[in-house]
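Discussion board: Methods & Data

I've been asked by a reviewer to show the raw model output for two of the constructs in my manuscript, not just the figures. I'm not sure how much to include, so I'm pasting the format here to get opinions. Each protein appears as its amino acid sequence followed by a line of discrete structure tokens. Is this the kind of thing reviewers expect to see in a supplement, or should I convert it first? Here is construct A:
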Amino acid sequence: MRKGLACMVAWSLMASLVYPATAGAESVQGQAEVGNVQAKSLHFSVPYTDLTGHWSQSAVTRLQDLNLLKGYTDGTFKPSQVISRAEFVMILDRAFGFTGNVATGSYADMTSDDWYYDVMVRANGSGIIEGTDREHLSPQQPITRQDAAVMVDRAFQLSAATNEDSEQLKFEDADDISSYAKKALTYLVNENILKGFQGKLNPKAPITRAETAELLSAMIADVKSTPGTYESRVDGNLIIKSTDITLKNMVVNGNLLLAEGIGEGSVVLQDVTVTGSVIIKGGGSHSININNSKLNRVVVDKRGEPVRVAITEESNIQEMHVKQKSILEISSNSLIDSMNIHAEASQTRMDTKGTVQKLSVDADDVVINGEKVKQGLRTSMVGEAQQPASSQPGGSTSVTSTPTPSSPDGQSPSTPSTPSNPAGEKPVPATTIPHDQWELIWNDEFNGPSIDSSKWTVQDTGLVYNNEMQYYSPDNTRITKDQNRSVLQIEAKKGPKNGKDYSSGKLISMGKGDWTYGKVVVRAKLPIDKGMWPAIWMMPTDEAHYGGWPASGEIDIMELIGGKESNNKVYSTLHYDSVKPDGSHGHDQGSLTLPKGETFADDYHDFQVEWLPGMIRFYVDGKLHHEVTNWQTKAAGQPEYYTFPAPFDRPFYLILNLAVGGDWPGAPESNFTSEKMNVDFVRVYSYKNLDTWPDVTTNPIEPAQQRDPQADGNQIYNDRFAEGSADNGVPLQWKFITNADGAGSVKVVTDEQKGKAAEVTIDASGTENYSVQLTQMPMYIKKNKKYKIQFDAKASANRTIMSKLNQFEKSWTNYSDDNTFELTTDWQSYDYTFNMRDGTDNNARFEFNLGLDDTTVWFANVRLIEVGEADPLTVERNALPDGNFIYNGTFDQGKERLGFWSSSIQDSAAANISVNNFSEFPIMERQLVVDVTQTNGDPQQVSVNQPDLKLEANTTYGFSLDAKADTTRSIDIDVVSSNGHTVQVHQGQNLSLNQEMKTFTGEIIIGDGAPIAQSELRLLFGSSEGKVYVDNVRLTKRGKPLSVNGYAHVPATEAWMMQGLQLEDSVEGGKHVSYMDQGDLLQYKIDVAQDGVYVLSARMASGKSDSKVQFSIQDEQGTTVAQSDLSLGDTGGWQAYQTVYFPGVNLTAGKPYYVNFEGADYNTRWVDISQNKIQNSELTADLKHWELIPNDLTASHDEGEGLTVKLPGTSEHWWDALLQQGQIKLDANKTYRLTLEASASSPKSMQAVLSQNAGDFVKYFEEEVELTADQKSYTYTFTMRDSSDSAAMLAFGLGYPLSTGEHSIHINNVQLYEVNPNADQGGQPAHVNLIPNGDFSKGKEGWFTHADGNAADLEMQVNNQQLQAKIGHAGQHPWDRQVINEGFGIQQGFKYKLTFKAKAEKSRKLGLGIGWVDAAANYEWHGFFGARVDLTPEEQEFTFTFDATEASYANTRISFDLGNIDGLQDGNTTVSLSEVSLINLGPAN
């Protein structure tokens, strides 16, 4: 609610909610009875006898007029009567019309007979009311003031844009407020809706009927609940709860709530202005239409089926939040300043021709203009109406149909204006590279009347980082005068703005100014008050490339942290590399401090950065204060770093902003009102001599060594402590440091054995191991070198110390890891080695850490020496997350971008092998380039190889690569095994290349031998001379052939071959196969046990209306035996699956077949293959396997058209004429699908029955089929009971009489086959193992270990389809050693059976759990089931059944706990697991 509205109703609030609530005389039971009367009464008598002169009379009358609140039949209102939770929900429901649903019987204190049952269920499902505990909703309990506030806040959703606890509530009883209610109460108090009384808020006192009336009267100005067109001004909050409502020429001076009561209907906003928020909770596919309207903030939060929101006719929305899956349509002349598609809004689809100045996509499976976009996308979209008439060629940072103009190298084409300084203004000082070597290519002198929109996008968003406190508003940015300067001014102000307590400004140049390398100069005067955080910085145009922030890189040219202690200091920082397990990431920071007495608010300063390949220098007023020449980055889970100088080797854009508060500066002072950041100009230069700059690919510019090592190579100076001490006793070259409550001293002493030694006396051991330190720097530690540290030490009593070598300041990277040593009272020699994996450091620090123990320590003979090259990195060559066994198949990682690749050029051949590097804005593309200049024509003459592949024996792999050549020629592909396996390569010889990049695919079959074939992939180029280009090399494991014995269910991921596809998490559990495009292939290899007709079905989803499925089956010779095309269309989103059935096909037992899925724009979850149990389903003329009763009926058959039976029309019962087939085998508890095509010459009924063929003739299925003159398809599904039947009968009862007399029935294509019980609802298959590779037939695939501390304490291997977990030390807790399989779904409300076999070398317990880990909530475990079993050396089978009562989860894990359960005896043993199976048994009872 806006402040203006709050002032309007303040007069009534002073007299209402300021009074403490008092309970009436009735008991809780009495209140429930009163509630029943109130809920059902429609009594309208006013004024009520007990309201005359009462302070709530006006509010009560208003709510009664709105049909929200009623009195009692005795003519009273009972204003002091407390109100129950159910009564309060009923009132809210009258305004909003809640539509949520929850499972019946969820709460023990409600039954379906209760008057409030329906509304409580709906409100609970809508998230308005939650239980007082897991089993109780407490409907008859009086509602407290804080719970009433929470429910109102959930219904209105107006505090969503505010920070929780953004302002401490100043009431004596503020600590009594429950944590869940703080945000709601804070909002209502700050908006003057709620007030306290005598300094107290009384949050847990019950609220009365009068207080309820005042609260809701202040919150609700009007409710529209009947269809129609409304044209009026509304001051306050307007609620729409009916479909078919049009608001026209209306101003809502408050908030507009399109409530759930709209259902799936439509609402039109025509020429509407809303000053507050528009909350969309209802609406369906017919849409919410927003036409020519001006809206401040829109929130789309409609649960269930997605709502369609159409924004047309020059509508303007400042801020839009999409919080649920939605369908958005934006016309070409509409404008949205800021749109955020939140993580919960996965599968949202947006079709836009309009302008979105800032778009943030935090959800997955979002489709924009028919193209699926990456989660984490940050971009802008230029509408068709805003597009220039023509544009220069190039890439674009926007998701638009017309690219934003950009030059080929990613630098935005711009004609810079001529910079001119005011008279007497200082010139821009030179940086390291002289002025004349730079060329101005882009600038803004801020001399115009307003901010230049062709260069900047002014942000209008509440999206901030680092817990900052501001809303970014265009109102806070302007062009103004500062004396004789024309400047950009960004102002931070105190005061509410869109739910924030402060507002400020932010400009970005993305898509309008993007550069790779150059110099940036920004002249600015900075704010310095406490809480101010001005920044000039750069971010990558394609932030997702290189793995997303921080691995994608960030260049902070200038940051200042306001406050008296730091108003003269600025920072410059690089951010890079992925986040480590401890939460840190790579960064390199420098700073500059002005002389004492000066601040950055006194005058304008020039903040400069020189950015060149492998070197970034930061300056203030021409003074270099920070230079970085070394960094490295890789995406999470990637085995090798991207080749230097990634990530700072592609386009970045510029950002100017002024943040308020946050993690670094803290909040402003309470008396803060306003501060300004003035920017005089921004100038961007290109380096004229870039083409002569050294090539730093792979090789960073090494920092200069600050001091040489000693003659013997030792980098430690005064290593024998014989060179004297400082006045404080600290040995020369060393530094003694105390931290964290540590205290002590050091001195050099004479020792009989060592001569001289350093004696460290500890007076206070402190709270950390670094509380007492003896250190030395600068050490020069080079990347990819190995170092050894040696020292002699003893202690006055046995104790532990720690030593390490780490980065000084910056991110304090620990290069050597912590090395712990046990000292004794005797001198001993100690040493450790480490490999330097990080970038070269010329300022590293060596440390002895002596805290946590006050025992005296002596040191002597300390050495740090380089001992050679670092040990080779050991990379376990498992498949990458996308299934590819080829590492660096995109040629952008490792040395010279050729990490994991080697080459071979025979003596009689010559070739140059490299990786090219060119711009495809906004990223850089790389390709392997092999230039063969001499060869005898043997392909083996020149090869590029990837060794160390661990491939499996008797396994088929598929390969693919993209390739082209300067001239027509061929290349070859080969794989060799070093341990004797035969290898067959299909489609790998004589790949014909031309000048067009094409994709080539084939198969590689590894023969018999050892389980693992140590293999090498070879790309052979020696067949002819010329230049070849290769990219995207892939080698993926083929799935196993699928044998079908009646029925088979296979997850889509277990395909025989996938080409051009990826795997993604599925909302239905496990993963699905995604990104199907033309030319891609999803293939399964099958064979069948019996001849017959087989029906294939697949679970598929698409977010595009024109998606198509091309289905075919081919035999081993490539002959197509079945083929069909299906227009799948938009199923409702990329994870909104439908089960698709394909026509049956005749297959022959013993022959292999290939089932192919091709086409475009769909995802696949699983495939079912099932044999038709009906013989002669086409009902051929001989009626083989069928029987007509009576036998005098006449029938005819038309080829391909089925059977026509003539009937007399004189029969009495359906069984008087039968068409039947017996000997049908049906299995207990299996689900079957019956389909047929049928019609009648005149409309009539036909009975379809499946039953026993003898005895009691028990019916398994019976349905009356209504036939028409038009042939139709009929489908029925049924599930067998607990008994099987090997000779069931299918009968079609044709004998229903027909008054018209003689007639005919036509039947064709009868099919009966087994299906997944929940196939059409997307549920899990029954009686299918949900654990991927639970039988270990694929070795360790899908299984992984967790070992807290030392990974060597749990080793896993698989032999003969049995997993063996070798346990060393068992740890402290059961979960410290775990074997885990993750990636299957558990569905609430279903019963599951878990079975596995296990044993241990010695008896011990085994824990097991099925659930999921919430990493964001400190790895909280959410369990569906858990148990412990006793293992013995003899293998046992364990079986458990359980009901899934918790909420469904699609990515569940099973964890076997192998840690410390019984004690030390749990370690030093091996536990074996096999035949792990989890089966869905169907709905729980």
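Construct B, same format:
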Amino acid sequence: MHPAAEPPKNSTAAQHPPPQPPPLTDIEIISLAHHHHQHNPTSPQVPPFLLSESSHPTLLSFLHSRASSSLNSSSAVFDYVSSLLSLISRHPSSGLSSLVSALLHSYLCLFISHKIPHDHNSLATLQQFVGYIDMIEIREIQKVIGLITSYLPQINDLDDAHVLILIPKCLELVRISNEVDKPVEYVNSVVDALIKCEWSKVLLIKMVEIVRDFSSCIDKLRRREFLEKIFVKMRNDVEMQDLPGLVYQLLVLATKGFGKREVIEGIVLYFGCMNKGGSVMKQVEGTVLLHVNFAVKQDPSLGQEVLGLVRLDSRAFNHFTVAVLLSVARIRRFGETAIGVLKSALFNAYKDYKFAKVCRWLSAELSEEYLENARVIEKAILKAVNASHCGREHIVPSIVQLGFGLLEGVEEGIQKEISKSDSLMGTEELGMQVLKCLFEVHDMSRNEIIEQCKFRVLSLKPEQCFPITRLLGYLVLVHPRSMLDHVSHLKEMLDYFAFMDDKISPHLVTILLPLIKFKCDLQDYTILVLRKAMFRRENAVRLAAISAMFNLILAEKQSKTDGLFSFQESSSQASCSQHAEVSQPTRPDLFQELGGLLQKCLYQQANVRQNLYHGLMKLVLVDPLTASTVFDFLLPHFKRFYREDADVQLGIDQCVKLENGRCYIVEPLDCLLFCISWILLLQPQNRSGYPSDSWACFGFSITQENEAGRTFSGESFSNSLAQIRKFLRNGNLEGLLGKDQDSGSRPMEKEKRRYSATLILGIVEVAINIIVAELEKAANTQKLELERELSQFVDIHEFVEKYTSNSRQGTGAKRATIRASVSDTADKLALGGTKLPPERTPLLATSSIHRLLQLALEFGNLDPKNGAASQINSQNSSGKTLVLNSKVLPCILRMCFRQLKFFSFMGKDDPIKTLIYGEIKLLGPAVLNIILSLKPVAKPGTDLSKKEAKGRKNIEVIREQIHLALLCLKKLIEISLYDAKYVSLIDDLVSASGSEDVSTGVMDAGCNGDCQLAEGIDDQSTRSKELLIKTIIKPLLIEFLEFSFFSEAEILCDLVLMIGNKLPEERRNLVGSWVTRICKSSHVSNSKVAKSLVFAAVTLSSPPADLDVAQNMAAELRRVVGSEDTDPLDTSETFPVINKSTDAAIASTILQSVESTVVDMDLITRRLKTYYMATQKGVSFNQMRKVAPELAMEEMLYSRAEAVVKVLSYFVAMNLKDPQAEHLLRLAAKFYKNLARISKYRIAPKGCKQALPSLKYHRLVEITCRQLTAPVYNFVAHMQKNQQESNKPRRIVNKIKRENKCIPDLIFQIEDYEKYLIQLSKTTKVNLLRHAKRSTSRDFKILEPSEDTLEEQNPTEEADCDNLNAIENKSSEESGDEGEETDSSQLPKSGSPMAAEDTEDEDEAVLPQVKRAKMNRVVQDSSDEE
């Protein structure tokens, strides 16, 4: 090729165009590019043809011709474009930018029109163009962007999306360009076009890949829209196999800072809502969890986002959220935190539901919402655990940690707050289900679960250990074979038996009993451990060991009863010879084997012996055939304390010892006789059918000769009990108790006497049980004699009782330390029993008390229809001797009350509870009939002062009996209301009352609205409760108020409140209305009864009526108490129950009711805090588009707070006494603290959206400022004025000290509230302080003294006054608010009257500087915050 000739340089030559460079073909261009690449890669020379603009059409035509070629057009185009771009890159000049622009535009047109194939060559070509986009002019780049965006809807294949790789570079160049007018707006419009266009599945995946390359061009709002579009398309178009890669790209995008929270939200919601795919989807979720785990390791801030989502909104909970948290918990830095967030979310859901259920002024719909939320969380946890075997084995350790964390959370009391009727599992059940599922699914987790159980049983507190032991019990019972593989761990736990808590150790032995029949040596190992424990010095260890021994013995007896041979049998099938060997017992009976060890228990402490006796009773209950063997075991021991031929047959003196200045019981003889008496009643009457092997014990052979001996043991005990009964009736009880010389006896002798009386009292109760049992079987001729004997023993019981600590007739000496009661034993506590108070456990059977009550009704001339007059005035016309006199009835009622009191403390599944207490609901009708028989029937105006002085005395006696009977009735109703087994007790009471007869004559009093009670109700339980109020409690209450039986009326008010709280909301309101009418119609002078009536009226009124009632009563109370402008009245006309005698008690009651509302407000405010934070940050998981429950809660909160303001507004206008005024100050401070919290939470943090306050909130602020804040300042000023004018400075010093705490706190809370109102007003541009009054009150107010007063003070007092005033001046200066300072002229000079008054007593007048410092700090904090 020859070089072109140079053009002539003269002007004539310039008029002719230069000669065109020789054209190049496309093949020559490709060859030239290859040549330069191989031989001269750094040469900048470019063929002139390419530099000429006239060659551009030719060059572009080559591109089109190659694209139209039928043979391998893709490769041809790629070779040509890459060669051409290679040559252009050697001479980067502005002249070639048009060629690059035209080439890119032509290539895009060919690509978009599908004139060239979309394959790897096209991708490589587009990638080369990315490097040359910088050479293109901005306006041409905009055209490229337009072409690409118009092509987006046509992308349906992955190769079609190759063109998108140009987008990031193009947008970045436009964004930083100065040639484009408003480049940011243009970029935003392009992003909007990308978001709004229709995305195919391929485009979705490609968008996720490229968006991180131009993420700097997208603002926060568009990022959120972009991610929303991605997750919407994921739900509809993405196939499951594409999900892991797509999620990985999203996580990579999040690690680059692109919408971290939105990415996590979207992933969690997407997989949490997916209900299709089955096992394939579970495998996909497992892969995604691994991706999330890896991403959190690379960027820990993603882990914080996961935790933050659950903290802000519990509605984020689904099974995938749980799985993500469990996966994140495998990272060391998030381990404890992630599990803690899971637990907290569950516990908070339980607490929210429990509060919504208990808080009466929240709607039922809100309670259902929280119930559903708790259910969702429970189901999410279980679903995540159930799917743990599908590719997510890495979360198994986290599941173990969560399960045990839930079991340990039972200690927080959540379990007791959850009822099974709510269809919630509760913390313990959920934790057990998690670990059960894990134990069944993952073999590798079993060893860890057992090891963790062992560690926690040995290290946790007893309350936390019981759920762990119950889990072990389930695993032993359901998976015995699997547990045998870990028996070494179980033996290690048994090794620590003596070091465990005495409540846990016997329970642990009990749950391991089912394994004994599978593991032959486990029983021997357990017995060995128990033998060692019996020789420990600690008394609690021996008690636990004796309980565990009887658990072993009872389990063996129960297994024989169920048809098993023994615990030693193997579970595998034996051969015929083996069957023959098994049928022959290879070892003695377990009771026989442990007999020697049990005999040693008879020489240990009293509580060990007591546990032994009750264990023997349980043994006979399980196997009555062992009764004779037990008698043989006890007879020699019994003979030590019973001397048949002696004058004093019972060795009470041997049962009580004085040693080292301490008195204690050695032998619980009453428990021994109690055990013997019940075994005599339980033993079979027909002995011929006894199997011979059941008597082989303690060396007795199975022969005919010793059968008589065994029979003699039972008969000997029977005869001995008969002799003891005779001895107690005829013997000298004073001698049995010991000599009592009041003047000379030592204190220890008196203590011993009380202990002896305690034992005798128990023996008397055993005798009463025996007599009642004989009375049930006696013929008519013998019944009268037995009834006389029963009456004698009741008298003896009353006589002995006055020597014990429980006696009302005692001298007031300190209560003796009585033996531990039955229910204190470890096995009962393990079953969920409650610890008993240190009082004697009654040994009377319920049947005995029931019989005594019946006899009292039958022979005491008590007629439920005629009332007390039949007892006062009647004569015993039948000629029969009165068996039970009126003095005995209080004793019987005290027995009944004690029985009912201890009933709730007995173990739930304790067989002795059934034996002793039986059907305790039988006592209800008898007690009620006694009340109805004793009630007064005389008219209130009857004069009993002269002729009927004796009748007046009888009325007082009857009143005492009614009081005791009402206490018993109250206990019975408590049992019925809180134990489902005894719910029919109320039905029995209603049936026994004879409703028509009871209500005659008194039902019409105030019946306008109460007649609706018990009408139109389908639910039988509710109807029975209302009938009980309507037909029994209401007439009695009206009658007792007429007769001024105030203590009895107070008990009835408690019953009304207790029953009313168990009624449905609409029915409870009827009861509240009736009590309110009682308050309007009855003049009550007793403050306790008035307090009970007012409290019941407010509490039983359904919200918002409850605070309406409180507001009406507060208005009447202001008239009775008086205010600064009005004089007080003696009695309210609207509510006669409010009068001068009851005003203080009623004021305290109303304030107490309002305080409960303020406490509820505090809990709701804390719950709203989380909601406000989530709303302000834009977090929302409201997938169903429902109204958030917090919105309804917020509206209710404002309405309730407004009602509180109205009630308190009446109190701040009253002349309250000191205790009520102090209560009001504390309550107002709490209320303003809640208002300040509400205002503070409504202020959005910086960078978050500020919501406008609602109209209800605006109204609340206005009413608070007008009706409460301004009057509160006047109230404080009035209080301080009265304080200064008081003439008794010594008496008010303590009050001043208390008020110096209350008043500064109240002022601080008010100012804190107003501070947040100011901030909220600034952020919302709404004036919320339009009706506010600037505060002028502080913690004190000092008035300027007169000149005459100053001259009368003496110099000594002036020095003290200066000291006090210096402290007060400092406090006053520091309490300034918003530039408002106290005028110095108001400060008193030395010798002021106030100072002189306060310094009258040197020790009391000057307030402690520490308390003043605290007061100063409170006020200073207020100033600092402003």
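Answer (T.O., handling editor elsewhere):
This is acceptable in a supplement if you add a one-line summary per construct. For B, something like: The beta strands are 656-659, 662-665.
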